[in-house]
């Protein structure tokens, strides 16, 4: 079961003239640090030539990606810190001799059940015995329907999935959205493209399927035949799926059907039984069929695919979905496929880290209560609130100055901006885990009961008022998000630390880093998707036709600009897929700069460590995006991630910012120079 639409967000002397860091109007102040880490600079490269490399070059040259990581940078370093902090919390809670049913007992038992490799190795595939027997007994189309419905509750891969979310056009109500699913590789392109790297991934996937099936008791010949059956079935599914760009078209995804009419899309599937077993027939009268053409084309796949092919498919996906929690041979095979082959990782993540990750995924809000008490201070929230206030004010002022938008549309834009809800740090209420049963030495059972527990929580939202207090991200997560259906921006506690937010640093670097993150999330409310939602979070057109044309012309130019950048050798950025995030990056940084100026209250910025305020602002931006990535992971993200690569975010965004040119004396002929007429400004 999924949540949809949330958009989320990383000493030698200069060999250039000292004028490159000059400031006309500065005063010296040393009570706060600059927040700039000059140890990471490559001062052989002038900031005017490649600012990202200048700021991060030494770090990029000397920092290695840990062997158990697919990438490494500011975000991942903070996430590793968070894992260490959560490990201490888990260990403390696990040591507590607590009564059965308490959160402390659940944390301890869950973590222990993952760390107990002896029991896992002894059990082997036994924890999945009942489900495997059901798959083996499947003989009819009704049996197929029953399995698809039951697997929706335990999150086993099937050809489609559904989630509970706010209705796109009635955001005060909850709705059900059905969407395409069914693949074991990251994206349809992995099945359909002739690219050599994707071919290698496909071949590895076939070997992985064979490995799991042989571990389950099949002969090599049986496993080989079945692997080809699965690959062909998933290829058929991939052919009719929407691609990543099509899935950004939220208006085309809003197809409301009453339950009895869904069968007109897929008559080969027993929807009446499916809705009954999932409980949807008692909870809702309608569903949203997201990728309508996919469901229409799926009908033919269902008609032509024999039951024994589906048996093979479900058997593999049941084992695959649980492989990381089974005995060592299954876990090792899963690592080889999904971490080594698809992400380039060379070493399995330490078991205790994986145990902490699992405990955090299942009992995260229980851990969060301890995390925020230990690692988040009221002063952080207070300073963050001031930053947010200035960002909202700056965005409001920028709206007033837009020369391409009519007054009529500006009125609606202001109305939406004024309606923003801001959440910082942690939620006001925590999840109640009392109905979740966690047992010692029953890892798969714990995971299955958790999936059913979450399923019930989501299903119980149907027919009830939307909970505007709910968070869709844990406080210990290093990230932030905008939710268009609630028109809210959310900043978890864990992102409020250096290099994004430094309580000991002057405001400039904070506005360049966390300020730009705030601006980024605000701007999502006005990107190519967010701009289709009004102040109440409803998908509704509030634009004049002429203004909408001008907006699309600007976004088209941004698509073309980013499509010219190379994400990794031989692969360009997908400017359409990344459009929303690129709008948010460019507009967010621009509005963060204006907010920084507001924070000065007309006073000159202090000079710290030889940098002017404007220079520290942009240095803060670039150092926050330092990152290295393995090529296998980079390829996967090019195909699936709506964000541009970190290096492009850290560098390309600056080319569209006029004040950046003034701050560093960038002129025509410099590597960081983009002619003014080509600089794209939207918000």
Strand content of the residues, in percent?
5-15%
Which consecutive residue ranges, at least 5 long each, have pLDDT under 50? Answer: 10-30
Approximate shape: globular
Overall CATH architecture of the largest domain: 3-Layer(aba) Sandwich
Helix count, DSSP H or I runs of 4 or more residues: 25
State the strand order across the main sheet.
Answer: 1-9-10-8
* The CATH fourth-level homologous superfamily of the largest domain: Collagenase (Catalytic Domain)
| Biggest beta sheet attributes | 4 strands, mixed
CATH class category of the largest domain: Alpha Beta
Class by alpha and beta content: alpha/beta
Number of domains: 2
Describe the oligomeric state of these chains in a short phrase: single chain
* CATH topology (fold) name of the largest domain: Collagenase (Catalytic Domain)
Return Rg in Å. 26 Å
Find the count of extended strands (DSSP E, 2+ residues).
14
